[in-house]
Specification:
Strand order of the largest sheet: 2-9-4-7-10-11
Order of helices and strands: EEEEEEEEHEHEHHEHHHHHHHEE
Number of helices: 11
CATH class of the largest domain: Mainly Beta
CATH architecture of the largest domain: Sandwich
CATH topology of the largest domain: Jelly Rolls
Low-confidence stretches: 297-301
Number of strands: 13
Shape: globular
Largest sheet: 6 strands, antiparallel
Length: 320
């Protein structure tokens, strides 16, 4: 069994899927599908794992994922409790290269679109003004019928493909080597790390979870995830530190220890290596960005029209 292969179901009159999901939490098993995925997070926070990369997602994020790209959406713990009151909400589009016809993206006029779809295998985060434009197009698309749905999807892809306000989550596009039991094993390892990264974790513990010897696990993990366990664990901890620095007023020293570090200099070193900023600079950067956005947009919340499954409209406030 490879990472779970999901089949995206389409209505007979559809060539691609457009959904508005309201769920307790996003799908948190490693999976892949032949469809390209465009996701607008209306409500929800957590971590997106794209096999060899980790991204902390939040309300307002828009992410484009390439075809057959193994990934999982791990919502924060507050969404995973059985009695959790919080709900996750997202607007999701799934389409394939053949949604517009087999040769459509081979047309010379569509060279830039084809390049975008290839780059999507690195997972693309849409930012700033481009994000606002894409959100508006997605909302308009929710009302569209027939050919207009196709036109709006092409407009969305055109806006993204010509934008400078996009950033890849993965550093490179690489193939993956998954064997028969990888899906269950990697999901188990991911879940164990997410539940325990805030304390000291030993290689022996994680290898035991995967039912492998330490040497075998090191080889296994690096061949599948394209990085060592220690580097992956550092990225998880720093991603959590970034979240806490941006969303709380906790002292940096407290955040250091809360993220599993018992050495402040190591925390600073790893933080700078990954973010190219110190923790204090990151907090200042985020605070100034929020203030500037608030002054510019006044208010910083934007209201969008979202359609319920029964066709009725409701409004949603999204931090952008």
């Amino acid at each position: 069994m490879r990472p779970q292969h999901l089949k995206i179901h389409l209505a007979p009159e559809q060539s691609f899927s457009v959904r508005h999901d309201v769920v307790p939490h996003f799908y948190n098993k490693l999976h892949y599908h032949s469809e390209i995925e465009l996701v607008f997070i209306i409500k929800g926070t957590g971590r997106l794992f794209v096999v060899d990369a980790v991204h902390y997602f939040k309300s307002g994020d828009i992410i484009l994922l390439g075809e057959n790209l193994p990934h999982l959406w791990r919502s924060d713990d507050k969404y995973l409790f059985k009695k959790a009151k919080s709900k996750c909400e997202a607007y999701v589009i799934h389409f394939t290269h053949e949604s517009f016809g087999k040769e459509f993206f081979c047309l010379p006029e569509n060279k830039i679109l084809l390049s975008l779809l290839k780059r999507a295998k690195q997972a693309i985060r849409i930012k700033d003004n481009t994000k606002l434009e894409v959100i508006n197009l997605m909302q308009t698309m929710s009302n569209a019928l027939s050919t207009k749905r196709i036109i709006y999807l092409l407009k969305i892809l055109d806006v993204i493909s010509t934008s400078k306000h996009i950033k890849t989550i993965r550093r490179q596009s690489s193939d993956f080597n998954f064997s028969s039991s990888d899906s269950e094993r990697i999901n188990t390892v991911y879940e164990f790390i997410m539940q325990n990264f805030s304390r000291k974790l030993s290689l022996k513990e994680v290898a035991a979870v995967a039912h492998l010897s330490q040497n075998s696990f090191c080889r296994y993990f690096k061949s599948r995830i394209k990085k060592s366990l220690s580097k992956f664990l550092i990225e998880i901890r720093i991603a959590n530190a970034c979240k806490l620095l941006a969303e709380t007023e906790k002292p940096i020293a407290d955040i250091c220890y809360e993220c599993g570090y018992n050495n402040f200099s190591n925390f600073n070193k790893h933080f700078r290596t990954i973010t190219h900023r110190t923790p204090l600079q990151h907090r200042k950067y985020y605070t100034e960005a929020v203030c500037n956005r608030t002054i510019k947009n006044a208010p910083s919340k934007r209201k969008y029209s979202i359609h319920n499954n029964d066709g009725r409209r409701k409004s949603a406030n999204i931090f952008c």
